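Let us work through a complete example step by step.
Step 1: write down the sequence.
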Amino acid sequence: MSDGKPHPLVCGIFSGEEKDKFTFNSFLNQFNNVIGSRKNLSDSAKQKYLHGYLRGYSLKVVNHLNISDSNYHLAIEMLKEEFLDVNYIIDETFKNILSAAPVAEYDQEFSSVKVYLNEIKSYLHELKAHNIDLLEVGSYGHKFVGHIVFDKLPIPVKRELVHKLDTNYPNISDILSNYNEIIKTLSKTVPNRKKTFTKTSSKPSPSSSFKPKENKVSVSAIQNFQFANKVTK
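Step 2: predict the structure and record it as tokens.
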């Protein structure tokens, strides 16, 4: 591969004018995956590619730097200093961890649980990229995230985790390491409550079909009462 030829893999464009504060972080992660992590490219080649994916103000920030191996890392640091709001990203990621939850609606395959746990996993790796490691076993953050996540899981998943791990307080590493196996087991063994509910709900329930007798007195009963009243007078 020639250093002067643009790489065919696609990377997003960053102009520095985006209002979303996550945009540069997303761009940088994508650039590193596509270009920055390639060992067969020199740093000067990576700097060329970097310039090719920048537009507008962001390009002006680094455009004065000569293309060289040493200036590539300098260009990255200058862009980070200008566009990467680490404190904002960390704070928003904390909020996302607290607000995320599985969908309340029941599904036999526990798909929403898998989506939820993968979402949490991505947030934890995002924090780790900014030197906040909540996956460090034994740390208070590790235990705290485990508490948050475990508390939001459906009861069948909680029960199986407790049974498998022999603890009422699984940490986040335990949960992320074991949920796939547990969900596979549950999807085969837990009754399909949704189908059962649909089937039984088509019939009126005893409570809905029961109609109390109205306390009405018939006309003939009233007449008999009046007649008997006259006879006894």
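Step 3: interpret the result. The mean pLDDT is 81.
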